[in-house]
Each structure stands twice: as C-alpha cells, then as structure tokens.
Fold:
Amino acid sequence: MSTLTQGNKKPIRVLVSKLGLDGHDRGALVICRALRDSGMEVIYSGLFCTPDQVAKIAIDEDVDVVAMSLLNGAHLTLFPKVATLLKERGVSDILLIGGGVIPGKDKKELEGKGVKGNFGPGTPLEVIIEFIHSNIKK
Structure:
C-alpha cells in the first residue's frame, strides 16, 4: 500500500512521542524505524515530553498522526490531555494513536477521548502501519 495521503500526494507525517516520566524508548524507536521504512516521514520527540510540547510539535510540524507511547500507567491522563490541547487549538485533523502497556479496559475510554488504536506489546508492525493508512484524517 502506498504511504501517500489520498489527496495531497505527500508522505504521511508522523510524530512519535514519549510522554511523561517514561524513559523506556526501545518500542518507540522500533515504531519510528518501521514507519520510516514504510515510506512515512517520522519525527521523534525524544523522551519526557509534556502534553503541551507534543501538541505544539504536532502543530508546528504539520503532522498527520501523533503516535504516543507510555509504559508507566499514565496513559489515561496524558494521552487525553494531548487530544484536549489539540482540540483547544482548533486542530481536529490529526489521528491520535496510543501504544504501550494499556489494559484492555482502558482502551475504550481512550478511544472515547479521541485516542485510537492503543496497541500493546507484540502488535505486529504491519497492523500499526495498516491502521494508520485506514484511519488517517487528512
């Protein structure tokens, strides 16, 4: 499948972000590589970002997707905060996806707050790539 967006003929731009006090970035780096290898443009935020920083980077870099990763249990707080900040700034065309250690019972709550996917450890990389293609908003 082509990584070009439907109307723009531009590569899909993805911000991969590690939020909060989670210093475990191996999975996020694997995701960066897989998305880049599939033809997407990838921006990596680095570690210890605040929701405000993620929203600002997403807007400044004009990304199509924000892929947030957390392994420390703060996903119900930090992921929705990014969604809220983007909405407050008038941005509604960015796909927000989550990843990390997210209990099944939390996935529906996150989806209700605008964070889709919510992939756990062991998710095949092709599943994440296909999800982005199928759910991109721009």
User: Anything to note?
Assistant: Strands lie at 13-18, 41-44, 65-70, 95-100, 116-119. The helical segments are 26-37, 51-60, 75-88, 104-112, 125-135. The mean pLDDT is 91.
